Amino acid sequence: MHNDPGTLSLARCGGISLSIAEETYHLTRNDIHTLLFYGQSVSLSRTEKTTCPGNAVMVTSVIDGHIAVHASGRAVIVTTRAGSYFVPFTSFQQVARGEAVSCPLFPVMPEGMQGFGGIA
Question: Taking Cα atoms as reference points, which of 40, 30, 24, 36 lies closest to residue 89?
Answer without folding.
Answer: 36
